[in-house]
Specification:
The complex is a heterodimer of chains A (about 775) and B (about 140). Chain A has about 775 residues and is α/β, with parallel strands linked by helices. Chain A is built from 28 helices and 24 strands. Classes of the chains: A alpha/beta (about 775), B mainly beta (about 140). The structure holds adenosine-5'-triphosphate and magnesium ion.
Chain lengths: ~775, ~140
């Protein structure tokens, strides 16, 4: 091994970095923030060389640009260990002190200081004298550590084992609250023995301050003992009062609680627990901290709906009417609810199914839950599980923790005041899990009809019957729902709406609702259907109708403002007027824009919030055999691009591609938008078509989208998410779709009216895709 | 089992920069280093197989000739240096410098049952692998009269 390894060489000439408010000793690792232009230059230049700087503390702390006279000429050489540049241009450094240095002569002052320095080698001086003073200082420091709240106890062991007097002194100095001048004096004391001696007065002073504050704390304790005496006197007073038949406040409260327990409708376990707690309360002094805790607990027991329930509306026809009043279509889900009511009516007590509504945002999952509650005549409660990681959020904290409370299920029931609400658990697919226990397991106890009749909340500590609650869960996707939960739920899908459906929803539901909510009447505002279609096409891009509703609301608000300022004529909102209300169009039909470009093919993607169309763009440039992939593609997607290219090279002639193209060109494939990560094999077909288009100079037929995985041999394999992809394609204005033959069965899930509008081509090999893509295309061949 | 030097743990006294500050933005207060020789400490895996005690250290960027392994008593020490990775670019301005460079050392306390002599090491792909053979346990029979 080379010598260098053993010894970092400190150059004789060092850049000098003035530092403020601190003194750095050898072996001290310290963060520094640098914002001064000149010091940034110093850092940049030092990092290219030795990475060692001289740190000299400023004499004056109130300047950012000290002269050489305003810094100490004795400092520490330090190695820059890490460095990070912040967006605002400042630099953050991590430096480690190496050796004491003395500035001999400043060599330059612009753009930053450099100096010739003397590196001071510290001698590991030992001897009885040093040993003795080390012990003395060390034991003082031990006592300081044990009293000082700002020093970690681990320091004790470290100081005890430190056998280098130099390092011991520096360690202590760097951990004591010393002024800059004192810290600097310790730094400048090179001799170990004198350095240690310098510390003794500081340690003694610190110790006496700490001991004093310890004593003050002791006095507080004496005060407390007096409180205790008062307490005993008061207890005696109570005893006397009792003898005399005079009930005090405390007794009155206890009697009142007993009365409430007798009257309340509780479960037998709850009644027993409440009785016991009141007895405990009676024996407790009012001032005890535990008194309030117990009191709160009794209140919880008394205020829970152990037996309170709303009567169910079992009029099936009326329920159906209410469901229809609130939501357009969603027939499958509504049928299921009506069916459930019918069973209840016949059997009296049907165990509720746990329904799970799955679909993209804004398709009405939450609002449907609310509507179900209204149809059944039950209360509604909604709780979001998104990001819930702690079991205690569901099941509560044990009462031993100060400020503990029941979990959110019990809290919700208290708020409802009934034990049979419709209880919606939103976002089951986003429930978390970590070291604080598994919330999914707790949730299972809540939902499972086999166990939830005696649900135990940690706080309540007595079972609560959840079996009358109708639980409904919602999710955007099913695959992240913990499987134990998924298995017990009945999944009902709400796949999203096509434009015609959105129009109907808007006309019959959203517009009337928003008109009313903004204090308008139909005589003041009217939305033309073309305006709604224009909103869905140009101002929103979504599977649900949330943004559509938001835009309608924003038009209504503007009209309402106008009306309020005295202008009372009726507004007719047309497509042409939207610009005025909503500003410029937010979305453009991308398809039209991109049709006819060479090298661009339209693919279909699946995302948790619904399907989407995506473009694959290829370009070539002079080069040699390079393939560049951009657009935040995942590994699988990159591999499928490589496979696509290899396939085309193997079949160049068949695809009318110059077989030598690859010797003269680099290929670049990009999948916008560049900032959204994408992965998966399903863009394989699209990549092949995009490349063939590029290399043969033929544009792809317009209004055609495709999906499918491609093998190296050109076979086309099935892919997932067909339903969402097809709906998205339709929404985007696609007219023909190329799909793997093996996905044919998935089309059954696509709504019939969407299917009718599209032409499907089923393929087994990628040749077929290429043929279809360029079939009737005009342009250069 | 083999353990790391317990002095490595502690409050404001640390010697392992890499472990303490994953990111520069997290450093808040000065820390006193206990180590004279090193600026950084590599991460390591230690495991036992039937025959060996295996130590693997993550040393990407360290050249083989800058590495040394020594055993003294119960302690195995690996020391070395990671030279400036940017050296080839004479003119450069750092935006970020996170990779520790300079001297490093890693001390590992060896359990009794591994050999101090039968040590093999391989350095490949930035990982240093050290294998110490386990000494066969001697069974001493005690006669009973
Ligand atoms: N079929 C429909 N008929 C009438 N209104 C609807 C319909 N679908 C959705 N809406 C309305 O759209 C809005 C958004 O619905 P909601 O908040 O229930 O979405 P969600 O599915 O719960 O979304 P998320 O997954 O983001 O929670 C609500 O105002 C709802 O009334
Ligand atoms: Mg919702």
């Amino acid at each position: 091994m080379s010598e260098e390894v053993k010894d970092i060489k400190i150059p004789a000439e060092l850049p000098i970095l003035p530092i403020k408010g601190q003194v750095v000793y050898p072996y001290l690792i310290i963060p520094l923030v640098i914002s001064n232009e000149r010091m940034i230059k110093l850092t940049d230049e030092t990092l290219v060389g030795s990475k060692i700087v001289g740190l000299c503390t400023q004499v004056r702390q109130d300047t950012d640009d000290p002269t050489t006279d305003e810094i100490y000429h004795f400092g520490t050489a330090a190695l820059i260990v890490k460095m990070l540049r912040f967006p605002d241009g400042t630099i953050r450094l991590l430096v480690q002190g190496l050796n004491r240095i003395r500035v001999q002569k400043f060599l330059q002052t612009e753009p930053y200081f450099t100096a010739r320095v003397e590196v001071i080698r510290e001698k590991p001086r030992k001897g009885i004298e040093v040993e003795a003073i080390m012990r003395n200082v060390s034991s003082l420091f031990q006592r300081v550590i044990s009293l000082a709240p700002y020093l970690p106890d681990e320091l004790q062991a470290v100081a005890m084992n430190m056998d280098d007097p130099n390092k011991l002194a520096d360690l202590i100095a760097s951990n004591l609250n010393l002024g800059i001048a004192d810290k600097q004096a310790v730094l400048e004391t090179v001799d170990a023995k004198s350095r240690l001696e310098k510390l003794i007065p500081h340690l003694t002073k610190e110790l006496s301050i700490l001991e004093l504050s310890d004593k003050i704390r002791g006095q507080v304790k004496v005060e407390m003992d007096r409180d205790q005496r008062d307490y005993f006197l008061r207890e005696q007073l109570k005893a006397i009062q009792k003898e005399l038949g005079e009930a005090d406040e405390h007794t009155a409260e206890i009697n009142e609680l007993k009365g409430r327990i007798a009257k309340a409708s509780l479960s037998p376990e709850a009644r027993k627990a409440a009785g016991e707690e009141v007895d405990r309360l009676a024996r407790m002094p009012i001032h005890a901290a535990e008194y309030t805790v117990t009191r709160t607990y009794i209140d919880w027991l008394l205020n829970l709906p152990w037996n309170a329930a709303t009567p169910d509306n079992l009029d099936v026809a009326q329920a159906r009417t209410i469901l229809d009043e609130d939501h357009y279509d969603l027939a499958k889900v509504k049928d299921r609810i009506v069916e459930y009511l019918a069973v209840r009516k016949l059997k009296g007590d049907a165990k509720g199914p746990i329904l799970c509504f799955v679909g993209p945002p804004g398709v009405g999952k939450t609002s449907l839950g609310r509507s179900i509650a209204r149809a059944m005549g039950r209360k509604f409660y909604r709780m979001s599980l998104g990001g819930v990681r702690d079991e205690a959020e569901i099941r509560g904290f044990r009462r031993t923790y100060i400020g503990s409370m029941p979990g959110r299920v019990i809290q919700g029931l208290k708020q409802c005041g009934t034990n049979n609400p419709v209880f919606m658990l939103d976002e089951v697919d986003k429930i978390g899990q970590d070291f604080r226990g598994d919330p999914a397991a707790a949730l299972l106890e809540v939902l499972d009809p086999e166990q939830n009749f005696s649900f135990s909340d940690h706080y309540l500590d007595v079972p609560f019957d959840l079996s009358k609650v109708m639980f409904i869960t919602t999710a955007n996707v099913t695959d992240t729902i913990p499987s134990a939960l998924r298995d017990r739920m009945e999944v009902l899908e709400l796949p999203g709406y096509i434009d015609e459906e959105k129009l109907r929803i808007a006309v019959s539901y959203l517009v009337p609702r928003q008109v009313k909510e903004n204090g308008l009447t139909p005589s003041q505002i009217e939305f033309k259907e073309e305006a709604i279609t224009a909103i869905t096409g140009q101002y929103t891009r979504e599977s649900g109708v949330r943004n559509l509703e938001r835009e309608i609301a924003s038009v209504c608000r503007k009209v309402a403002k106008d009306v309020a300022s005295g202008n009372d004529r009726k507004r007719v909102v047309t497509a042409a007027l939207l610009r005025r209300y909503l500003g410029p169009q937010k979305f453009f039909p991308e398809l039209a824009e991109r049709a006819g470009e060479v090298g661009v093919a339209t693919g279909l993607a699946w995302t948790p919030v619904g399907g989407e169309i995506l473009f694959v763009e290829s370009t070539k440039m002079p080069g040699k055999k390079g393939l560049q992939l951009t657009g935040l593609l995942g590994e699988v997607m990159k591999e499928s691009a490589q496979a696509a290219l290899s396939h085309i090279r193997a079949r160049a002639r068949q695809y009318k591609v110059d077989p030598k193209f690859f010797d003269r060109h680099d290929i670049h494939i990009h999948v916008p938008s560049g900032a959204i990560p994408k992965d998966g094999p399903s863009a394989g077909v699209t990549m092949v078509v995009s490349l063939v288009s590029l290399l043969s100079g033929r544009p792809v037929r317009p209004f055609l989208a495709m999906t499918g995985e491609v093998t190296l041999r050109g076979k086309v394999m099935p892919v997932g998410g067909i339903k969402e992809k097809v709906i998205a394609a339709h929404r985007a204005g696609i007219r023909e779709i190329i799909l793997p033959t093996q996905n044919r069965k998935d089309l059954e899930e696509v709504p019939a009216h969407v299917q009718k509008k599209l032409k499907f081509h089923h393929i087994d090999s990628v040749d077929q895709a290429v043929k279809l893509a360029f079939a009737a295309a005009r342009g250069a061949v | 089992m083999a353990t790391e030097d317990p002095r490595r743990l502690g409050g404001r006294v640390r010697s392992d920069l890499g472990r303490l500050f994953h990111d520069l933005t997290e450093i808040v207060q000065p820390v006193y280093s206990l180590d004279d020789e090193s600026v950084w400490h590599p991460y390591g895996d230690i495991y036992e197989t039937e025959a060996d005690l295996v130590i693997k250290l993550e040393l990407a960027g360290v050249s083989k000739r800058d590495l040394a392994i020594s055993v003294s008593g119960d302690q195995l020490t690996v020391t070395g240096v990671r030279r400036d990775l940017g050296e080839d670019d004479a003119k450069r301005i750092y935006l970020k410098m996170e990779i520790s460079h300079g001297r490093f050392s890693k001390e590992i306390v060896l359990p009794d049952h591994v050999s101090r002599e039968d040590i093999r090491s391989v350095y490949k792909d930035g990982i240093l692998e050290i294998r110490l053979a386990k000494a066969a346990k001697k069974v001493v029979e005690v006669k009973i009269d």
